[in-house]
Structure formats: C-alpha cells, structure tokens
C-alpha cells in the first residue's frame, strides 16, 4: 500500500508534516505540551523541541506558554492556521492522488513468504 | 517562503519524493546511473542504493541493468509510471496548495539582521 505524505518546507531546514501537525492539534485539544506528548508517545523534551523549531522558523510563536512546563500551552492564530491550511491541502491532494496511489500500489509484488505454499 | 514536498510512502520504510523522482528522470534521460548521479551531484554508490531500495520496495525492477556499472540502465514501465503519476499528483497538489502556501509564507517574520537600520 502506498500512501501520500505532505510536508511544508520552510527554508533553510524546517519541515512541517503529519507528525508536527498532529502535535499542534494535540496541543490545541489538551492545552498542554506534556499531555500532547504523552498522547503521541514522545518525550516532553522532544515535543518542546519540535514546537520550538516551528516557532523559530516562523520568527513568531506558533504555540505560547512554552517556557515553563507548569503552565498550560496554547496555539496562536498562526498555529491554528497552519493546522487548517495543512489539512485543506492534504484533503485536496489526497483526492487528486487517490487513483494514482491505487494504480502504483497495484504494482507492488509481495515477497512470497514461507507460509505461501 | 514555504514550499510543498510530496512523498509516496511505501510500507515499511521507503519514501519516494522529489530527490528519487528526479534521479529516475535523469536515469531515463541519460540511460546511465553514473551519468544521472553526476548530474545530481551524488556518488554512483548513493544513486545505486536509492534505486536498489526502490526496486526492493516494489518487489520488481524500477530500473534495469543495475548490477554492473559498465552497461547502461533503463527505466521499466513501472519506473516510468512512478514518474508520471508522481508529477501529476504534484501538479494538482501544488495548484490546490498555492493560496495556502502564500498565506502561510506571509506569516514568516524575517529576523532583523545587523544591516536593517
């Protein structure tokens, strides 16, 4: 099965894809970086770094309240806009890609395993 | 400036994106892995590995004639189809993404450099 993954690439070296968008959505839903990290099975430190990297790439906060771990965190308007626009691009791209992905998936030859007799 | 990058993700761990598609296009154009590698500024070994990985992911050759470095190489029908379908997906996704990318790019705050006074 072939699936499509989309990344927003920000020069020089930031990429916002399915993982970071999911993280932003969880922060928005829970109001907490540590809760979001827990839900996604990553460390608080890793989640904080990903968010910090996005804040740096935009030159303004995408998530606020990221300095201490005690207070809550929330998405800024730009943070919310990233999610909305990414999901809209994804939806339209997936619609366009669907027949192509199905056709290409049909060309994958499964290796014959030991139980294939 | 924010741009869009698309990857075809094949379980368990192959991703075909702009770099590999470009490599396939160059192999098709030159009929040679080493010429394609040279054009793209990568080693022959690296190009061979990327192609080998794609062949493995599909369970059939995407590029043939990859065993020796003396003979030429050419795309199989599936190899050509990957290029065509990737570029079609990309074209439609970019069209849908354009206004979103422009809007998000507008939120990037450029850091003020030492010459900004």
Give me the secondary-structure topology:
The structure is a homodimer of 117-residue chains.
Chain A: E1 2-10, E2 14-16, H1 18-30, H2 33-40, H3 44-58, E3 63-64, E4 74-75, H4 77-105
Antiparallel strand pairs in A: 1-2, 3-4
Helix pairs in contact in A: 1-2, 1-4, 2-3
What key phrases describe this protein's structure?
alpha+beta; two-stranded antiparallel ribbon; homodimer; 117 residues; Arc Repressor Mutant, subunit A
What number of domains of chain A? 1
Distance between the termini of chain A: 23 Å
CATH homology superfamily of chain A: Winged helix-like DNA-binding domain superfamily/Winged helix DNA-binding domain
Mass-distribution shape of chain A: elongated
Compressed to H and E, one letter per element, the order of chain A equals EEHHHEEH
Uncertain stretches of chain A: none
Q: How many beta-strand segments of chain A?
A: 4
Please count the helical segments of chain A. Answer: 4
Q: Please list the strands of the largest sheet of chain A in the order they lie side by side.
A: 1-2
Instruction: Give the structural class of chain A.
Output: alpha+beta
Mean pLDDT of chain A: 91
Biggest sheet architecture of chain A: 2 strands, antiparallel
CATH class term of chain A: Mainly Alpha
Radius of gyration of chain A: 18 Å
Portion of residues in beta strands of chain A equals: 5-15%
> Biggest interface between protein chains, with counts per chain?
A-B, 36 and 36 residues
Q: Provide the CATH architecture of chain A.
A: Orthogonal Bundle
The CATH topology of chain A comes to Arc Repressor Mutant, subunit A
Percentage of residues in helical conformation of chain A: 55-70%
Oligomer: homodimer
């Amino acid at each position: 099965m072939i699936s499509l993954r989309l990344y927003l690439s920000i020069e020089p070296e930031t990429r916002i894809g399915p993982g970071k968008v999911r993280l932003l959505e969880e922060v928005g839903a829970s109001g907490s970086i540590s809760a979001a990290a827990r839900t996604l099975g990553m460390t608080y430190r890793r989640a904080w770094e990903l968010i910090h990297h996005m804040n740096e790439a935009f030159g303004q906060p995408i998530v606020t309240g990221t300095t201490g771990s005690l207070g809550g965190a929330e998405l800024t308007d730009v943070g919310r806009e990233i999610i909305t626009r990414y999901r809209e691009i994804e939806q339209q791209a997936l619609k366009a890609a669907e027949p192509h992905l199905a056709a290409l998936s049909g060309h994958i030859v499964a290796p014959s395993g030991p139980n294939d007799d």
